[in-house]
Amino acid sequence: MRKLLNTLFVTQPDTYLSLDGDNIVILQDDVKKRIPLHNLESIITFGHTGASPALMGYCVDKNISITFLSSSGRFRARVIGKSRGNVILRKTQYRKSDDEKESTKIARNFIIGKVFNQKWMLERATRDYPMRIDIEKFKEISGHLSEIIKEIRVCDDLERLRGLEGQAANSYYKVFNQMILQQKEDFYFHSRSRRPPLDNVNAMLSFAYTLLANDTAAALESVGLDAYVGFMHRDRPGRISLALDLMEELRGIYADKFVLTLINKRIFKKDDFVKKENGVILMTDDSRKKFLAAWQNKKTEKITHPYLGEKIQWGLVPYAQSLLLARYLRGDLDEYPPFLWK
């Protein structure tokens, strides 16, 4: 259970939510907790949480949304009253998405977060594994990423921004293979192959990115934003463009780092994959279950959010960033603060 930016997150499984006066009652294993509702804007629940009709009716009257997510973070449903705030929020989102200059202003902060966090990963590797990597190469690329960040900060053209993001990605991937420290004969990275993945590492990265995109889309929907209307990723039928935008800053520090940990700690081995006749590499059914279990465990780890200064679980970072993006669009913040991990 966690309050964050006036949102209550109920992360424990098998809880029941009910109403007592002006308080929400959280019941789990005969243990009750009461929290005043008057200062809440929304409630987000994970897992098989139930909620009483009385609580839902109260929240509808007070314009407090209740969002139900699966235990893995997939969006299920949202109970909300009059949608005045969300209509205004989404109309603002659509207007800014249609304006390329405004889109660039928001998108460049997503990409600053992405490149900053990739740079941090390289610097952390030079500190932790100085005898196992090419220090000079890592420092050279880290310096290059710093220069790209400077260019991104003043970029006012969306196509130019995409080019800078591509330059940064190419530089980062040049040394990604060196961060694989174990099982080098079975786990190696030469380049990104997406559809389809052609090696074990790319198969893991693709699965991690899919999970992160789902988590981010659920987070955006839970705060009233449209996950399909982005700023850097433009509209395409069926594509969760805004989720792809928002997850950029978490690709390296969350998904890539997660995959590297599974390999370097030998949690995943070559037997977790099968190779099809056309060269496509897939994870086995059992390895996907193992991957999902590890992903869920990762989401429970506690961190201090670099902008908010609050302790939250890793799994709540997409929700925190979604809330911050919504606040920027509402005019409560001067600009969207990216997730800059240190």
TrEMBL record:
Presence of keyword Cell division: no
Tell me which UniProt keywords the record has, alphabetically.
Antiviral defense, DNA-binding, Endonuclease, Hydrolase, Magnesium, Manganese, Metal-binding, Nuclease
**EC number per UniProt:** 3.1.-.-
Q: Which GO terms describe its molecular function?
A: endonuclease activity
Q: Which domain of life is it from?
A: Bacteria
Q: Which cofactor does the UniProt annotation name?
A: Mg(2+); Mn(2+)
Described purpose of this protein according to its UniProt entry: CRISPR (clustered regularly interspaced short palindromic repeat), is an adaptive immune system that provides protection against mobile genetic elements (viruses, transposable elements and conjugative plasmids). CRISPR clusters contain spacers, sequences complementary to antecedent mobile elements, and target invading nucleic acids. CRISPR clusters are transcribed and processed into CRISPR RNA (crRNA). Acts as a dsDNA endonuclease. Involved in the integration of spacer DNA into the CRISPR cassette.
Protein name, entry field: CRISPR-associated endonuclease Cas1
Signal peptide feature range: none
Concerning HAMAP family, the annotation shows: Cas1
Task: Report the sequence similarity comment from the record.
Answer: Belongs to the CRISPR-associated endonuclease Cas1 family.
Its assembly, as annotated, is:
Homodimer, forms a heterotetramer with a Cas2 homodimer.
Keyword hit for Transmembrane: no
